[in-house]
Write a structure and sequence with these properties.
A six-stranded mixed beta sheet has the order 7-6-8-5-9-11. Strands 2-1-3-10-4 form a five-stranded mixed beta sheet, sandwiched between helices. Helix 1 packs antiparallel against helix 14, helix 2 packs across helix 10 and helix 6 packs antiparallel against helix 13. The two termini are about 15 Å apart. The protein has a domain of about 140 residues: D-Maltodextrin-Binding Protein, domain 2 (3-Layer(aba) Sandwich), CATH 3.40.190.170. It has about 375 residues and is an alpha/beta fold. The chain contains 14 helices and eleven strands.
Amino acid sequence: MKKLTALLLAGAMVFSLAACGGGSAPAASTPAASAPAASAPAASAPAASTPAASDADYSALEPVVLMGADNASRGAAGQLLGEAVAEKLDEITGGQLTMEYFPNGELGGDADLIRQMNAGDLGIVVCQIAPMVSFVPTLAVFDAPMEFYGYDGAAISAVLNNHDGQLRQTLDKAYNDAKLQLLGFLQNNTYRLTTANVELNTLADFKGLHIRTMENSNHMAFWRAIGAEPNPLAWGETYISLQNHTVDAQENAADTIIGNNLQEVQKYLCNTQHILYLNQICINKDIYDGLDPLYQEALQMAVDQAIAEIEPQLPGLDSDMQAELESKGMTIITYPDSFYEEVLALPEVQALYKDIDGQVNGLVTTMQSELEAAAG
């Protein structure tokens, strides 16, 4: 499989498009998010290892409270990550640097949260990659379909969270250009899945499938490439649209599917593994730069520790949720290697790889090279 992916990318065209774009600049005034506090199992381990505690003395520093948020479903990986970072930040600094955390869309949807972070009204945002692409266009590197199929979680983490690698350094710069600071990625070889009201056993079964997608042109291009008809509905309209058969399918991670009771309106759970279930955590760059260097180190340590703690749990959580969805009436469909190879061999999919690689100045090719090296 890895050889096939490498062949797909060998002929990728490198265009001279600008790779890095930015969101709106944060407010120049001191952000409220950094104001002094009023009061004081079986999965592969991630690549990074971090110390259990910091030897730094934070007692002489002014207490600071950060604000963080996510729009994840209850119990989803994004919520687990954000809340774990808040807990560890408090432990590491003895309550000197803390994060007031608002999960599950309490402060708005993903785009709203990112805009608030750009404006400096919110410090930290945890979300999946797709909503960030409009603000950090280089993240389109993750839009190439099935690009992680055939690699394990350890190899993927060794690339995504390797601060010395070309991929990560390019992404770090892209975030900085957007006035953000990338703190880390959370994944462990788990993927977004397809749910449907029709049985999708073969590639031919996707022809004409009306599927709800995120408003991401690359994602939509993939579904069109395999014969489906994508419809970028707002998430709030998805359940009723599935119920009314306005659309017949959608794609999401297992925790989101079960968190929104989609088993009530969908019959089949298909392990298409088309997009990696990848969460990122980042902070407004002005807020980050305004932190004492000791606090910056403590924040990165908290993120690294949270990722190291949660990442090994993700495959088990994913399989448990799939089993629960099955117990609630869904039929699980898995595919042989030949299915993924058939998809990746489609001329339309190969053309999409080249297009996305061009959008990000050859970074898809770079990532595949680093994945090959990490996998040994």
